[in-house]
From TrEMBL:
It comes from Chitinophaga pollutisoli. It is an enzyme of class 6 (ligase). The keyword Ligase applies. SUPFAM superfamilies: Adenine nucleotide alpha hydrolases-like. This is Diphthine--ammonia ligase. Residues 9-216 form the Diphthamide synthase domain. Keywords: Ligase. One of its GO terms (molecular function) is diphthine-ammonia ligase activity. Its EC number is 6.3.1.14. The keyword Ligase applies.
Length: 220
């Protein structure tokens, strides 16, 4: 690589995009030093994906990285995010943060803003990749994931399904972006080349909150 390697914090959702962004950044020569995940205000589950801390901590353990799980409401999300970046920057001598966004410019603008405030570079290694090609690259490079939350267009029947050729075809047939970049669904990575062992996924039940469906994980 032409630029010197960065010591990176990964904005870690537990899903495929943040994981593949981390995998790509590592291939580019960067060194991961920590993960950051924002939980809901009571600290019981992660935002959007609905993952309990125990699953996120298990992912961090098989990645061999420390994880900062930061509770926050939507109102103080940005403040807590910047504070968390600063904390991890100091603790781990981080120089950059990596994000898994693909082509939503407002997301990139926000990530660059919070990183600048925290004195870090923002890295988006998946930026402007073609979405369907990107999903197939994830599968080809050994990333395994399952749907853990989705909208009513997909419905509860998609929860727990593993990402593969059949699921990609079914998402397209339902008129849903295969990356879920617009929030149609979210995933949990259960294995990838950076994991020392596959994730041990605990039992879960299907629940609905308004027009969104989730796997609700049994809490430790």
């Amino acid at each position: 690589m032409t630029n010197p390697p960065e010591h990176i914090i990964c904005s870690w959702s537990g899903g495929k995009d943040s994981c593949f962004a981390l995998m790509t950044a590592v291939k580019q020569g960067h060194k991961p030093v920590a993960l950051l995940n924002v939980l809901n205000e009571n600290g019981q589950i992660s935002r959007s994906h609905g993952l309990p801390p125990s699953i996120l901590e298990q992912q961090a353990a098989v990645l061999g990285l420390p994880v900062l799980l930061q509770p926050a409401s939507w109102q103080d999300y940005e403040t807590h995010f910047v504070e968390s970046l600063r904390q991890l920057k100091t603790a781990h001598q981080a120089t950059a943060a990596v994000f898994g966004d693909i082509d939503l410019q407002p997301h990139r603008d926000w990530e660059e803003k919070v990183c600048a405030t925290a004195g870090l570079k923002a890295l988006l290694p998946l930026w402007q990749e073609e979405r369907k090609v990107l999903v197939y690259r994830m599968l080809e490079q050994g990333l395994k994931c399952m749907i853990v939350s989705c909208n009513d267009t997909l419905g509860a029947g998609f929860l727990g399904r593993q990402m593969d050729d059949v699921l990609i075809a079914d998402l397209e047939a339902a008129g849903v972006d295969v990356c879920g970049e617009n929030g149609e669904f979210h995933t949990l990575v259960t294995d990838c080349p950076l994991f020392s062992t596959p994730l041990q996924v605990p039992p879960a039940e299907k629940v609905q909150h308004e027009n969104y469906h989730f796997l609700q994980w049994k809490m430790d």
